[in-house]
Fold these 2 entries.
Entry 1:
Amino acid sequence: MDNKKMKHLLLILFCIVAVYAGAAEVAEDSVQTTKEDSVQTANKVTAIQEDVNYFDFSNMLIPITHTAALLSTYGVRDHRLHRGVDVRVTTGEPIVAALPGIVTISKFNPGGYGHYVLVQHDNDLQTLYAHLSKRTVKVGDRLLPGDIVGLGGNSGTNVGAHLHFEIRYGKYNVDPATIVDFPNWKLKEGANRISKSDIITAHQQMQKKLKNEFYVVKEGDSLESIAAWFKISVKALCRINNISPEKPPKIGQRLRGSGQ
Ligand SMILES: [Zn+2]
């Protein structure tokens, strides 16, 4: 090949690379424009396999990097729904994303989750990591399983350092123990085939159970004392029950400690 032909060939190659690079940049830009685009792009990497009726969680990572005591399970606790599991961690240890996705919340909630991160995954799944001592991601960050979302801690709570970990499918809470065998810290055998309708049914049964968990307002009660009974903040109590210091509950009124 003479020099001229070589130059010509190099020019063609350069053009091809430039076109591809341009396309990649456009794709990167479009990720910033809409949340949906971002989620789809993030999940192209190791998207959770989806069947119409089942989730395959076999790619899910346990969000801590070692085994640890399970301090509290999912379910009714303190007359309200404990929406996740509590896992003992040490302050400052890395907490990692369980699935690929995009960060949709990274903030501090003083009366509840403390420093927490919510990650949106494919197929309407979300995971939440709370009581962190530090958040290391911001809204819009795209994560792969194993990427650090923050460091363990006890922000928002006055008990010892622990990770509060939730899995959600749209508006439904998922008991992480349906996927993870906690004493052994492995994915359960059926984790590759978790029925969506079972998730919905379990959520509805939990809501029925919660209907029996309420506080009847008595004379002399204050918003503070009732919030303390549920172990939630006054702000949360007011939000859940549509009450406020200006619009206090009436004697005999039934108050709840968790929303639907
Ligand atoms: Zn918890």
Entry 2:
Amino acid sequence: MVAEMKCVGYCRASSTLKSGWTYENPCRRFWGCGNYRKWVRGCKFFCWYDLPVNARSKVVIVGLRRMVADMEKERKKEKSLGILVLVVVFFVGFILRKIFS
Ligand SMILES: [Zn+2]
């Protein structure tokens, strides 16, 4: 599979294969010009690579992405809590050492 090609718009810049993550087009790949959103002489070249995502796939993909995002949030909370526990244990150990030395 070709992952990069020249833009077929006017600019001929490098164009890469990207994935859309909107609700309407989750995981649907497209070709987009590297100059697409530039202010000066922005190129409008855009072309879908994949066929449209069917309704059932949209629901499943969006649901799975939401689950992964929720799991990542939980993992970050757990990591923060772990660091907090380590700091408290270190601090209490430091205080106890001062008291009993
Ligand atoms: Zn272009």
